[in-house]
Amino acid sequence: MSKNRELPEVNAGSMADIAFLLLIFFLVTTTIETDSGLNRMLPSTSEASTIKEKNLLRVSLNSNNELLVENELLDIKDLRTKTIAFLDNGGITKGKNHCDYCKGDRNITSSDSPQKAIVSLSNTRRANYGMYVAVQNELVGAYNDLRNREAKRLYNSTYTELMSLYNDSKQLNKEKIVLKEKIEIVRSLFPLKLSEAEINTK
Amino acid sequence: MSKFAKKKDGELPAVSTASLPDIVFMLLFFFMTVTVMKDSSIMVENTLPNATEIKKLEKKDRVIYIFAGKPTKEYSNVYGTETRIQLNDKFASVEEVGSYILAERAKKPQELQNVLTTALKVDKEANMGLISDIKQELRKVNALKVNYTTFEGDAFNNLQ
Fold first, then answer.
1. What is the pLDDT of residue A45?
2. ipTM
3. Please, which residues bridge with residue B64 across strands?
4. Which sequence spans correspond to the domains of chain B?
5. Which residues in chain A touch residue B143, judged by CB atoms under 8 angstroms apart?
6. Which of A56, A58, B78, B131 is deepest in the core (most CB within 10 A)?
7. Is the pTM of this model over 0.80?
8. Tens of pLDDT along A150-160?
9. From 3.30.1360, 3.40.50, 1.10.760, 3.30.420, which CATH number describes the B50-159 domain?
10. Does the beta carbon of A164 lie under 8 angstroms from any beta carbon of chain B?
11. Angle, CA of A38, A103 and A96, to the nearest 5°
12. Is the separation of the CB atoms in A105 and A41 below 8 Å?
């Protein structure tokens, strides 16, 4: 009897149901996490520098959650322009520290060059974290605006575009080296000197 | 009655569902690969602030998380309503942050130990006092790279 030896075919009709069940499980448990934020470096404990008062922009938050720039009240919406004016000042008119790409006021009482300029951020314990992040955001934004401007002038594309190109995984290694160089140059024109350390002034 | 009688003209042929399992499996594999299982449940209120100048945290294995905020409703009658720090699955004091970072760092492979980032997931209503304390602790253990984790959005919305 040959008929008995034949194995019956397994019914695969319920396969879809099983797959659906698993699919729904993973759909429910999935959290596509959005992890992005402001990257900052904390000062190391040994760091203590002495700089000229005019090269320092003091930004602080008081306990009423108000923003003080150089001990004067300022609306946070004006912080970005204020910071750009400070960084872009270029107070030294000649010599090796002269900043020939700066477009600021060349005010002698403000910062010498972007390389010298330091933004110092401090806060009281009562200040609000949301406000603090907003201030950080505006300060980093000021740097990014200036870097965008310089990258546009030198390479005809903004700094953020260069960065996103560099971080693109499809980019070839050879081009990455070129991009890296460009990014380094733009960064050196406006180095991010945003300090949260205690600073002494001369 | 012939066996091979023609079907009636009006009848539509049934759509074959034989490839349905394949499609579903494809979706299943997609979700299986993108799924990140939550390793700790958040016990604090965690409405992150907004910011525009943000960078993505690309590599998950190089990040240590610190949460802070007011305890959620189910914990508030035990732990109060003051802003607290959460490390892994439990509330912690400021002094524990340093040893937590060192312990987490020791767990990571040797070559990553110098490039770790500490992601601060802090509720936007939190006081800066606690954040300053955390930052002091991080400076003590030389974990200087921090990321203030935020949502993408207008930073001025934080002020309300």
1. 67
2. 0.74
3. B118
4. 50-159
5. 42
6. B131
7. no
8. 888 888 888 88
9. 3.30.420
10. no
11. 95
12. no
